[in-house]
Design a protein that fits this description.
Layout: E1 2-8, E2 11-17, E3 22-23, H1 30-45, H2 53-59, H3 75-87, E4 94-95, H4 111-122, H5 138-147
Antiparallel strand pairs: 1-2, 3-4
């Protein structure tokens, strides 16, 4: 898990990023998994998020801090797949690290962009300090404090 400065359309923003893929058949580093889990939790509770009933059901099954085993029946993999189904783009069951520019094909942004937007919304005025949210996993909170 890292913080990055993302330059897009001439605007620089701070953004949280993962170090390696998270999800199906992925490295699933503990800090990266917990960051992605918190991103989906933020999407679930964000009143501005437009998620489907299916996504709401699947996202609610994620347990913050639980390891991701990288199999198709893992709750985080199910959430990633439900998100990918709605947003379009690759349906590979994993979240990839954001690369410079924030878009991988000129049409779709990296999933971490959407998760960052939702994390920002649930800590109004405090982002990137997601550790200020009471449900931020302790490992993520510690890394945020160290980075900020």
């Amino acid at each position: 898990m890292d913080i990055m400065i993302l330059k897009r359309n001439g605007i620089s923003t701070l953004s949280w990023n993962i170090s390696a893929n998270v999800g199906l058949a992925s490295p699933n580093r503990t800090d990266d998994v917990q960051l992605v889990q918190f991103g989906y939790y933020a999407m679930l509770i964000n009143p501005n998020s437009k998620i489907t009933d299916e996504q709401r059901d699947v996202f609610s099954k994620i347990v913050l801090g639980q390891a991701c085993n990288g199999t198709a029946n893992d709750p985080l993999v199910a959430a990633i797949r439900a998100h990918q189904k709605v947003r379009g783009g690759p349906q590979d069951g994993h979240v990839s690290p954001t690369r410079e520019g924030g878009s991988y094909d000129g049409q779709h942004t990296f999933i971490m962009m959407a998760l960052n937007n939702n994390m920002s919304d649930v800590v109004p005025g405090a982002f990137p300090r997601i550790d200020k949210h009471p449900k931020c996993p302790p490992l993520v909170a510690a890394l945020v404090k160290r980075a900020c």
